[in-house]
Structure formats: C-alpha cells, structure tokens
Queue: 3 jobs
Job 1
Amino acid sequence: MTYCSRCNRSFNSWPAYYQHLRDSPNHWECQPCQQDFESRLGLKEHYVQSPRHHYCQYCNIHFDCSSELQDHYEYEHAYCSSCHKVFKNELGLHEHNRQSHADVYCVLCKRLFQTPSNLQSHLNSSIHRPKDTICPFNGCGLGFINKSALILHLESGSCRSGVNRRVVDNWVRANDRSNAITNPARLITAGERANIKLIATEQSWNGQAYECVLCHTQYRALMDLNRHLDSPRHQEKVYRCPLDTCRKHFVTLSALCQHIESERCGVMKFRAVRDVMDNLLNGVARMTL
C-alpha cells in the first residue's frame, strides 16, 4: 500500500501511485531532478532557478545548454547580455540601458558601446555633430565636424587647394614662434627633412616584395610603398601637447588636435592654453598658399 500525504489517498501499487503523480493537478513533477511541486508555478520556478535546466519561461521552451538559451534570448527577446536580464519589450530594454548603462549607451541611437571612450567617440562623430567647420579654400567648401577633421583633410592632400601635410607643417613652424605646440629640439632635425620627398623605385624589389629601407616593411605594389613613404610614419614627432603635465608628442598637427579635443589630459580646461591653440588652429584654417 502506497500513500500520498498531499492528496490523502492510498494506492495498491507503485504503478498506480506514479500514474496518480502524472495525472493529478496537485502534483507537478520534474522527472530529471525527481522533485515534486504543488503547482505548475512551482515547477516553472524550479526550471528557471535550477542550474540543471536551460529554460525560457517566456516561451516555455527547454534548451540543451546555456549557450543555446543565451542565443535564444538575444535573437528572440529584449535581452541585456551584461546583466543577464530579459525585458518584456524593446522599450523596457531601452529604459534599462538608459538608467543602468548610461556611461556606454547612446540614447538617440539605442546602441551600447564597450567602453565610455567608444561612446564619446561615437557622440563626437558626424552622426551626432553637424559638419559646420567649413574648409576655407576656394573651390573646396567641404564641411567637417571639428578642426582636427579639417586639418586632417588638408594634411591628406585631398583638398582642391593643393594644401598637404608639408604645407601645414611649414606654416606651423613659421608661426609657432613661442613653440607652444612644437618641440624646438626636434624641429632642428625634422626641419632638415621637412621638404624632402622620399620616392621608391623598382630597385626596392627584394625578390618577393617592395621593401622599405627604413623599417623593412614589405608591400606587394610599388605604389603602396610610396604611399607608406609619403605618410607620417617615419617623420619626427615635432608636435607636443602644450600642457606641462602632459607634453605628449605627435607626428601630425591633426593628431595633436584630436588629442586636445578628446580632453584626455584636461588641457582644454586652461584658458591660456585654449587661446594659444585656437589662434594657431584658426590660423591654419585661414592660411593661404
């Protein structure tokens, strides 16, 4: 004789008792765990909380492993993978991200970033900032989101005016008389090479590729090697951050400008430094050939 205390019933055999467990509304059994629950809700909570089960309570689906459940959440539900939380809809997820991940979440784009600096770069991009810094040269008129983007445009040689990196560098050398953003010690050696253009020929072929004699980097095409030689790769880092506690050096003016605009060292907090930088950068933007 087998007795069910929950239902206050007796059974003549074990098969009859097991049949009762399967059919009775008072018994909700998890067979893999051999646990019996009083309600469907209790069984469901067991599925959700037990590490042995990989269960989606929203779809009432069991999965073979945790990675399959994770994929299901990400593709079928409003899911925060950082917090391992599922939300009723996308609006719920959006509000969660806005409040809990504000340092890495773009509210307008509803997009998460890995780091706060990545978010800041996104917010400083043309997606969120107008291209209201206009190239001043006749025949160009392209717009950029900030001064560093404009200077990079000039350094690249893509401006219709014909301005390139050498023109920009020579202008700064001539106008930064107080060496606010240039290192005079490095200008001495760099100035000797400032107007020298390195050009590779077919003699750069080493039998397998075109090789740079300065750094031994190899290229498949001669054009790529010459593009490398014309880049700032082998130039002196003549530009430096004007903040005494930073003094980080850069090869190009645009790189220095990006460093300042990023506010990583706090240089823009100082009025005197801002005035010097604004005068120089505005001068570059207004320079004529």
Job 2
Amino acid sequence: MSLGLFQAIARLLPNPVLLCTAEGRILAANPAATRFVTHLRAGADLFHLAAEDSALLRLHMDHWLRSGDPLPGSLTVRDSDGHLVRFRCHGARATWWDGRQPAVQLHMTRLDHTDQFVVLSQQVTALNREIAFRRATEAERERLLAAEKSGRLRLQHLYQLTAALASAATLAEVAHAVQETAPAALNATSVDLQLHSRRLIPSLEPADTLFALAGDTWTDLDERVPGPPGGATEGAEAAGPDVTAVRAALEADSVNLGSLLVRHGPGEGLEAEHLRAVAQQVAQAVRRAGLYEHEHRVAERLQLSLLPRLPAIPGFDLAGCYAAGTDQVKVGGDWYDVHPLDDDQIGLTIGDVAGHGLAEAAVMAQISAALRGIAMRCGQHPAEVLRELNEFVGRYHPERMATACYLVFNRRTHLLRYARAGHPPPLLISADGTSRYLDQALAPPVGPMEGARYFDAAVNVQRGDTVLLYTDGLIERRGENLDIGLGRLRALAHTAVGLTATELCDLFLNHQPGAEFPDDRALLAVSFPTPEVSAARPVAGHRTTLTPARTLSLQPP
C-alpha cells in the first residue's frame, strides 16, 4: 500500500487515524484527527504534542512496533486552546509501509469521563501481557541455558569415556575405563561389562581361565553357567524396586562380543541412540583389546618355544623366566642358556637382540645356537666366547646388534669368570641377602664393531650365593635413569634370603614396587652348591600365569 492510498482510505473513516514513525513524527493524519486537534497533521511531532511522559509514550511505541496485532493504549493531546483531549488508541506496526523507518498505524477514539475504567482496564491488560511475555521469555531462556549446560556436560563425559577407552590396551583396562567413565556418560548408577572371552581371545586353551585377568572388573560369559540361547540382547531387565537395568549388545564386525549392563534409578531414562553410540565405542575398544590379548599370548608361546630347556645339574638350583612387556605383542629377542662344560665347570648366558618381531626372534635363535657351539669349544674363557660371537654376528647378521653376558663357574675353585658385551651387570646375592653388581669387563655389544676387544673379570663366590642374570627390560622404566632401576633391584635382593631360584624369578619379575615393564624381561637365577642343595633334585619345569605380565618359568626336569 502506498502513502497516498492510505490517506485516501483514512479520509473515509470517522475516527482519527495517524501514521507515525518510531521517533514520533507524524507521516499522515486523516481529517477526523485534525478536527479534534488541529496540530495532529503530517510533519508534527507526536511526542511534543502529547501530554504523557515521553518515556511512557516511547514504551507504547515500542510495544506497537513489535506487534502484528493492534494493542490498546491511551494518548492525551493539547488542542489549540490548551485543552486536553484524551484518546483511546489501538496501535500496530504498519506492515504495508515501505519507508526507510518502521511506522506505527494508530486508530484513536476520543474519551470522556465515563471511559476512565475502560482505559485503566486496557492498561492493566497490556501490562499483564507484558509481564506474561517477560516471564515466558525468561523461562525459555532458562530452559535453553539448562539444555546447553546439559549438552556440554554430556559431551565432556563422552570425551572422557572416549579418551579412557583409547588409552586402554588390555581387557582389564577397558573394563576399568567403562566402570570409571561410562556411568557419567550414560547418566547411570553403574555400568558392568560382560564379555565372551573365547570369542575375543581365540588363543585361549580349553583349560585356560581369565578369572585372574578379569577379577571383579568384568564378567566372563563363557565361564558362567549356560543360560537361554540367544546371547546378549538389547532391552530392559528388572533389577529392583528403585533400579532399572538395561542391556546393550556389544557387536563388532557382526560378532557379538558381550553386553553392557546399565543400571539407572527412577527418573534417569536412557536415550536409545545415545546408549547405542556408547555401546559401539565400547565394542570397538573391547575388540581391539581382545586382539591385543590374543597376539600377546601367541607371542609368549612362540617365545617360550624358542627358549631352551635348562639341563639338570646336580647341586645347582636353576630357574629361567621370561615375561613379555606390557607394550609388546610381538615376540622379542631375549634369551638365556646354561652350558655344562665338564664335571667341574658350567657356562651361563643371557642376551638380548635389539628389536621385536619374528626376524629378531629368528636371529636370537641363531645367535643362541652359535654361542652353544662356541661354548663347547672354548667355553672356559668368557672373553674368547664373546669375541667369536661378535665375529659370527658381524659376518652373518651385519645389520643386527645384540647384548650378551657370558659367565663360567668352577665348582672346585668357586671362581666365577665373566665378560659382558654391552649387557647390564649380573647381580651376585649372598646367602645373607647382601648383594653387589659384577660391573667389570664391559665391552661393546656384539655385531656392530668388527674386531672389538673383550675382557674377563673374576670373582670368588661362596656356597649358597646366587647370581641373577637379566635383560634390560627388568630395570628400564619410562623417564627413569638406569641407576634407579639398578638400585631398586639391589634393594629387592635384601628380601630374597632363603628363596629358591624359581621364587627369586617371581620376586624380581612381579613384586617390584609400582611394576610396569614396557619391554620384555628374561631372567636366569643360579644358586651355587651347598650341601643341602646338592642332595636335592631340581623340581620339574612349569608355566605360571601372573599379572601384570604372563610369566614363563622354566626349571630343569
């Protein structure tokens, strides 16, 4: 509608009609408005003509501009004689107006003294509408803020769950992450993990049990009494008068791995999509951890098959142990061996080929076999053994490097001779628990340096003394100096009084304070003859499963 058309229509109306800007400038007025008040004409300032406070009139203008429907109000204007003329108004935004500034269209009716109640009622109605509008706006604002806060908190809990699952390597770590972070992510009372261990770890043997691995962190469904067919499904279960349990299936690659059992209290409903998203994250973490456990066990069995069976030597208590590192699922290059040289002398070996994998394991097997052959020929001289071993590695495996320590014990003289090729020093433990490192005769590792020179050192040992040979994985920790690891090992030796060789291996492998070993560990413990030990026959070999690493322990048959 144009301004001219508005004026033509307004001229026909009997009551005053105005078109005003938000600032109060009158854009158009019909003849009826001019008849009542001559000043009500185009170009006049309504705020100047009005008897009301300008702030109140501006408030009315703001209300009218925001409304698409007419809103009531009142207006008092002085005529040319100074008399007050009062009008009841209905104003609304002129949506048809296409000018630069928005405009208000006012339809006015002159009031007499009988209209006071009507005006007051209209003002009260307008005020109530304004109050209701403000309350509704505030309630909506609080609802939006609460929804934003809830969404932000949910995202934070989901991030914590995702981060915890991403850093979990084993099934026990995944279960711990679920117990600690999933209840907050799902707004639940508790979340339990129930798994099919034999689907996750195919390398489990029929007699194997994961009870020690699972503990109270998760339930092994394959160890439970069989229930109805069908496996884990999604749905609600009765859990008590105040608790509801919901089971969500854990599936990865179309394989059912178990379920999440989510318990929540009254009024703590779970969104199905949200629960499925969390279950999918947990399923992927469980699948990854199961693969890790499977490969870890296979690697250990392969490593065990490559390690030698220790010979039965009358009078000696021998035990050899191996444990894979917490960061490794591949077979390593650690080895140990015992070489009976003659009736009076035995040779002892421990070594470590750098790296992890099948290639390193194959090199380890060849180096170990080569050292056996060298020891048969010149095993009474440790330096000569390492010199020839260095030539062998340099010639047949020039790209490889290995550390090694070779010792020879003479039971007639009780002299222990040794040489080291870049290997940590053996620990000699006396019968009373005192200990010292055999830290002499250190030379470069075998392999990288052609013509490297190796030296002997010798020490007298007493009856009942024990020598502990080990690889560097036993003393290495992330961000820690090796001297700290050596000190920790020696401090632990003070508690080793009266222990057998097998018990020593268990002590040093699994009872160090805060033990977490990222690398493989191999140990060889040899207790030198005493009258009591000489009369005893060594115990048959066995395998034990221990935490945090599964330990392979061998003794002579």
Job 3
Amino acid sequence: MRQTSDADAEAWVLTTDPGRALLQEVAMTSTYGPTELQRWRRGATPEHVAAAVRLAVGRSRGKAKFSRAEAMWFEPVGLEQATTETVARHKAERFRGSHVLDLCCGIGGDTLALASEAQVVAVDADQGMCRRTRWNAHVYDVADRVDVIRAQVERIAYRSQSLVHVDPDRRQGSAKRARELLGYSPGLEFLQALPGRVRGGAIKLGPASDFVTHFGEQPCELELISLGGECKEATVWFGALATCRRRATRLPEAVSWTDQDGPRNPLVPIASPLAWVYDPDPALGRSGLLDSFAAANGLARCAPGIDFLTGPEPIDSPFLACFEVLEILPLDLKTIGKLVTARKLGPLEIKTKGTDLRPEALRAQWKPRGPHPATLLLMGGKGTSRAILARRRSPAVSQAQPIA
C-alpha cells in the first residue's frame, strides 16, 4: 500500500481550492507529458501534482466499478482490490438491519454497500485507507452509518454476536496477487478461526484461489459470483448467513443456482456436439455446480473435463451463452483460417477451452474482416480436440432461479 505521505498530498488536492483547481485541470487532460507536468508544477509541488494525477487516473478507472467514482478518493492497489459496487450490494443484502464489522476495508468498496443496509464499523491497518473510506462514505451519503477505526484486525476483540465481512489483502506488500490463501493477510489461520468467534459473516476470496482446499469441507456456503460473465469473487458465508453448501450467482441478472436446485450426484454424459452448444457462466464451473446444472437441464458435456455443454434444443438462461452449431471441424489452424477467408467471416468471436490458443492472436492471424458474423468454439483435449463454427443465439427469458 502507498505511504501516508501520499494520502496527505491527495488530501491537499481534494480539500484545498488550489488542489481542486489542479485536479480539475488534470482530469480534463488526456495525456500527462513533460509539458503538462512542468506547467502544473509552476503552481504546486511535484508531490501534489503526482497526487492529482493519481486521483484523476483513479477516478477514470473507478467508473468501471463505482457509480460515483467522479467524486471518490482512490488509491491504485486499493481500487484494484475493491469490490465492484454491483457485487458489494448483492452481498450487503444478507447483512440487512445488522451491525457489521467490515475488516480490511481498504478504500471502502464493501463498506459503502454494507452501510446502505446496516450500521458498519470499518477497520483497516492503513491510516491512508481509513481516510479514503471516510471520504467515500460522505460521497455515498452514508457517513452517519459508518465508523472507521485504524487497527490490526488480528488484535481487536470480537463479540460472539457480531456479523463480520473481511476482504483480506491479496498482495501483502507485493505487486503480484496471491492465488494461494497462504499468501493472504490476515492469514489463513485467522480466516479459518473467524467463524468460531462470531455469529456469522462473509470472507471474500479470489475466484482463482485454492478456496476449496481450505473451506470446501467446512460447515459454510461457498458462493461464486460473476458479473457480466466474469467470475469476480468466491465468498465464504458462515454461521447465521450461510444458506446452502454451494451457490453460483450471476449478476447483474441476479440469478443463482445452488446445490439444492439440482440432483445430488449428477451423472452428465459425454456427447459429440449436437444442434446447440453452450458456454456456461464461469461461476457454475468454479462453484462445482456445472454438472448439477447440466443434468437438471438435460445437457451433456462435449468432452471430458471441457466446460462446453451441448443439447438438441435451445435453452434460455443467463447462465448459458447459446450457440447454434453450423459446422464441426478439426482443430487445424490452417484449415480454419482458409474457412474464415472463404466464408468472409467477421466479426469473429472466438472461445477456447482446454487449449492455450489465444483468441487475440488467432484474430490477428486470420484477419476476419468479412460481413458475416460468426463464433468459433475451440476445444482441446486428447482425442477430442475440434473446432465448432457456430452462430450466437440472442438471450431470452431466464429459467434460472431468482435470488431470494
């Protein structure tokens, strides 16, 4: 995390007339070259100019996560690790009407959503992050529902009736994001002990982390949350806030699939691609519920260990991207390239599973600039590699279960 001196410089930019004027000028500039920096430094110190640039860049990037980003106080790593507003509001609904401890609050992404539903005490060891959370609480008009304290979360006292949300640091002073929970801070020992110390709560983990290894057998609910088709986080719900064992949730449609919705021990057949092929939402796969969903909807896998599903009829669900099969080809790049040119395909959507082929590189190689939109589904696997030329079907009404 950045040092408090950076927070002091940013606070000057945000709270003084010269600082706000500087920030406004920086925010209206598309590039920050030597000429611009030299001009700004005539009226402000290099530290204040750097702070204004950080704030302007943060607000620009923050618009992808927050609806009021143009007024918020961001820090680069804090913004990257902050929960997207849509996801945070989804989680906050379970805390409605409670008093919540939000541990490792960072810039306050989860704090702001929690405060719309509950009274919140936000805790972080970094004084700069505490200042940012207070500021952002005012931006979202929830400052009267948020108390912010600076403390090491491992050292504070927990009441047995408390509800807790924790977003552990996944970098811990390193530029590289930790995938193993052993690299999180607070550490795995604290995270695993937390359910026994409070009434209930949630632990935010990375969706690509080894959460199943450490929490898969615990008496808790593992929820995988996707937003717009990208898996955003694995949430461990425990105690009074757990509702099932596994849950896959897709936002913004607000639909979910749990271990209670499908067969307990699903047997999903393997079949060559039929009339329709489906690319399932990644939350289904990461939650371990893909076979349950497939079996309940009469679908088969296209190949062992490959998360493309297939069936004879189209199925409408936010959890499935649906493709009509036009042709099945060997996974031979030269053959496919000739087909792309001959059929005048373009734009060309490319999806891959079980292979290290990169869609961007393939598009650059094939140059699909024709007038006929298409999709290529490329799947690897020993003895099962193939390419499917397909047409994407427009989504219709959801058949998935709405979140209660």
